[in-house]
Design a protein that fits this description.
By secondary structure, the protein is an alpha/beta fold. It is built from four helices and five strands; from the N terminus they run αβαβαβββα. The protein has a five-stranded mixed sheet, sandwiched between helices. Helix 3 (about 55-70) links the parallel strand 2 (about 45-50) and strand 3 (about 75-80).
């Protein structure tokens, strides 16, 4: 569920992401808009992980998301924290939410965690 106020935003993810996989982190709304424009104008498949620093399930799946980004090099991996990007993630009602894009269009969505489920969806959208 979305939390309206962040209780001390956790910025650990940004430092971890630089050496854990090929995940592009959107630190704010403007950056996320740029990333979304890139995804929508690209032919490359992409997955966006919408999470939150206060979400325990999000924190549990994040290392797997980072690890899987190394295995599925055809996909662009993006992480957006709903508290860091409040305007551009307003439509997200559950964390984590994974959205899958192909040829610039959203083609699939997955709610909740589960490394095996995520792996299967990534495999499906990377071929």
């Amino acid at each position: 569920m979305r939390k309206q106020e962040s209780e001390g935003a956790n910025h650990d993810f940004e430092s971890k992401s630089s050496h854990n996989g090929n995940v592009k982190v959107a630190p704010n709304d403007q950056s996320f808009l740029t990333i979304l424009d890139d995804i929508k104008s690209s032919k490359s498949p992409a997955v966006i992980n919408y999470g939150a620093s206060w979400c325990g399930v999000c924190s549990q799946i994040l290392p797997a998301f980072q690890k899987l980004s190394k295995s599925f090099s055809k996909l662009k991996f993006v992480y957006a924290d709903i508290d860091e990007c409040p305007e551009t993630t307003r439509h997200i009602r559950y964390t984590p939410t994974f959205q899958f894009y192909r040829d610039g269009e959203k083609v699939d969505e997955m709610f909740g965690a589960g490394e095996e489920r995520l792996h299967d969806r990534l495999w499906l959208h990377s071929s």
